[in-house]
Amino acid sequence: MRLLVTGGAGFIGANFVKQTIADRPGVTVTVLDALTYAGNRASLEPLADRIDFVHGDIADLDLVDELVSGVDAVVHFAAESHNDNSLAEPWPFVQTNIVGTYSLLQAVRRHDVRYHHVSTDEVYGDLGPGDRAFTERTPYNPSSPYSSTKAASDLLVRAWTRSFGVRATLSNCSNNYGPYQHVEKFIPRQITNLIDGVRPRLYGAGHQVRDWIHVDDHNRAVWDILERGRIGQTYLIGADGELDNKSVVRMILEAFDRDPDDFDHVTDRPGHDQRYAIDATLLRTELGWTPRYGDFRAGLAATVQWYRDNESWWRPYKAITERAYVAAGEQTLGGASA
Ligand code: NAD
Ligand code: DAU
After folding, report:
1. DSSP per-residue string spanning 222-281
2. Alpha carbon distance 283, 202 (integer Å)
3. What's the 29 CA to ligand 2 centre distance in angstroms?
4. How far apart are CA 72 and CA 114, in angstroms?
5. Is 311 in the active site?
6. Which residues pair with 237 in a beta bridge?
7. Is pLDDT above 60 for 258?
8. Mean pLDDT across the chain, nearest whole number?
9. What is the 3-state composition of the chain as percent helix, strand, coil, each rounded to the nearest 5?
10. What's the 81 CA to ligand 1 centre distance in angstroms?
11. Domain map of the chain by residue range?
């Protein structure tokens, strides 16, 4: 199989490419990535002679058409992915997440190429504490510029499938953790803060709940769907990993042998989604997928170790990321008891 992976220099895409090269010798991989602030060529460095890398934009219709004409399938990860950035400046989210997806859909339509669309549980909005987890039938109700543009891209895929017969599947996954995640995101930000001797920073009271899944479990599900998923079907991906943010910060501090209350509360995110939770019954029963990383604390410890061992990978991004948080108005509200 000849595979085009968009966003392969980003967090999940790079892990997907690594897993694919390791497990599937019959697959050839071309990565298309614009190398935005979130793309890191170093993530693919160990595979440089095993893949083709194209530096380009998914919204470039001619480039995308040419690349898609030479493959059997596309797995589309490329996106603007960070909620905080979407609140500061929404336009790149509209351009990449909506127009970029349009560009890919037109190309797979023209060349009748199999397409898998990687999306997020955030398209469903958020849940209250006692609400049932999201399923494939939950109505869309996105909250942020990020999640609304991902929702729009999902709807384009559904329309292109129904109206033009595009052979597409979709997946909506919960929060990923693992190696190669940008230091702007919650878990790597706190780990790298602690390596630098800075206290973790918890938005608001930290009662928001996220449903954590290891990135390798997400990517194995993507392969299951690509190979055996039903055309036109959406599959939710999640590993029953619900935890509130405060508990995660405390676990990270414990992994550093630090007092679990040694963190700061900072300004909350506007419109902050309260809770995400995934019911992955369809994926488990129809495709037989199960997560391999059942123990979040162990997965987190391995992730902490990865950031300790790979400082040269994240160091160039750390100071600029923290400056952006300050510029966006983040303020310290006080310590754990605040
Ligand atoms: P990321 O921000 O780490 O990586 C995004 C990649 O896309 C980067 O390499 C970037 O350079 C590239 N890119 C951005 N704009 C581009 C453009 N116009 N053309 C080509 N490349 C471009 O993101 P991630 O966390 O790896 O997320 C990957 C996908 O998974 C996204 O679609 C995201 O919505 C989805 N997702 C993420 C999570 C999560 O927890 N991170 C969970 C569920 C779904
Ligand atoms: O649910 C899937 C989504 O998960 C993906 O679609 C997104 O691409 C991905 O970024 C992630 O979105 P979140 O907004 O949930 O992730 P983030 O890492 O930004 O934040 C996780 C939680 O931690 C959230 O409730 C906000 C909080 N937070 C975040 C940061 C960066 C903090 O408390 N402190 C922080 O410093």
Report:
1. HHHHHHHPPTT-EEEE--S-EEEHHHHHHHHHHHTT--TT--EEEPPPTT---B--B--H
2. 33
3. 29
4. 6
5. no
6. 173
7. yes
8. 97
9. 45, 15, 40
10. 5
11. 2-176+212-237
**CB neighbour list of residue 131: distance below 8 Å, 6 or more residues apart:** 275, 277
Give me the catalytic one of 102, 115, 124, 146: 146
Model pLDDT for residues 70-96, shown as the tens digit of each residue: 999 999 999 999 999 999 999 999 999
Q: What is the mean pLDDT of residues 121-144?
A: 97
* Average pLDDT estimate for 238-263: 98
Q: Is 62 a catalytic residue?
A: no
Q: Which amino acid is at 211?
A: D
Bridge partners of 251? none
Average pLDDT over residues 46-50: 95
Structure-block tokens of residue 255: 């992994």
Q: State in words which class domain 2-176+212-237 has.
A: alpha beta
Q: Which residues contact 49 (CB under 8 A, 6 or more apart)?
A: none
Q: 217-236 pLDDT, tens per residue?
A: 999 999 999 999 999 999 99
Report the chain's terminal Cα–Cα distance, integer Å: 55
Strand ranges of the sheet holding 168-173, from the earlier edge strand across to the other edge:
52-55, 28-33, 2-6, 73-76, 114-120, 168-173, 234-237
CA distance 1 to 292: 25
User: Ligand 1: does its nearest atom lie under 6 Å from the Cβ of 10?
Assistant: yes
Q: pLDDT grade, residue 336 (50/70/90)? A: confident
What average pLDDT score do residues 260-272 get? 96
Q: Which atom of ligand 2 lies nearest, measured to the CA of 84?
A: 19
Q: How many CB atoms lie within 10 A of CB 156?
A: 19
CA 56 – CA 63 distance, rounded (Å): 8
> In 3D, which of 247, 274, 279, 277 has the Cα closest to residue 263?
247
Question: pTM here?
Answer: 0.98
**Coil, strand, or helix at residue 62?**
helix
